[in-house]
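Priority: medium. Attachment 1 of 2:
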């Protein structure tokens, strides 16, 4: 049986994050990260029947330095075709958990690496951005 009639297809984007990256406003990026999902490339997709299984997040290891980068995207269309084809929407809490678990391994985090408005941050800066702000 096909999808439910009238159901909207899942959009792999965070418009607030795209807008924040366009202006390079770190406060707006932080707000967008706290209030919406982030698109992540996957090495291995999660189980379709389990919404809690995001899958195995793909990271880039620089062959020259061995440093690991986490690549995050505001929209799946911004993901270069050379990366694994599968993507997932990672909610803020999951992104925070992932970064906390891999903080010592990940050297940097890139947002929309290939554009249109790339930005780079440390894992610590992203974790700070994901902290709940009572003013939000």
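Attachment 2 of 2:
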């Amino acid at each position: 049986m096909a999808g439910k009639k009238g159901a909207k297809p899942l959009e792999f984007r965070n418009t607030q994050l795209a807008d924040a990256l366009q202006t390079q406003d770190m406060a707006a990026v932080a707000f967008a990260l706290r209030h919406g999902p982030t698109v992540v490339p996957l090495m291995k997709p999660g189980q379709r029947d389990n919404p809690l299984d995001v899958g195995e997040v793909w990271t880039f290891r620089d062959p020259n330095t061995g440093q690991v980068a986490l690549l995050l995207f505001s929209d799946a269309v911004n993901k270069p075709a050379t990366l694994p084809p599968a993507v997932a929407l990672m909610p803020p809490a999951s992104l925070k958990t992932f970064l906390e678990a891999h903080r010592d391994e990940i050297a940097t985090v890139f947002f929309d690496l290939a554009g249109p408005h790339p930005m780079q941050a440390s894992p610590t800066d992203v974790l700070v951005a994901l902290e709940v702000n009572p003013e939000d």
